[in-house]
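During the reporting period the student researcher (J.K.) took over the structure-prediction task from the postdoctoral fellow and processed the backlog of single-chain submissions. One of the processed entries is reproduced below for the supervisory committee.
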Amino acid sequence: MLRSDPFEMSMFERRLSVNLPGEPAWIATAEDVILHKLYWDSLTPSEHQISDAAVVVAVQSDSLDRAYLQQWADELGVSEKLNRLLAGEIKPKST
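J.K. obtained the following structure tokens:
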């Protein structure tokens, strides 16, 4: 269910329509996945959330909307971790 806070509304408006094997689906943008992972980590610290965000940055780095990321990171209070991710200081966890 969509919450009425500004970030959730922005995330909903930016979602992408894709076709999964034979089925249409909506997915969040890479930027919104990163921000959501960082926000959840700020509520309940988790190596898993940070590692997931680092994977998205590693895969999508060249195509990320960094202005959007910085704007919402400031709003969500996760700028420090975002900056560390974008600088490559936080790496995906290897298994």
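The committee noted the following: The first helix runs from residue 6 to 14.
J.K. will present the remaining backlog at the next meeting.
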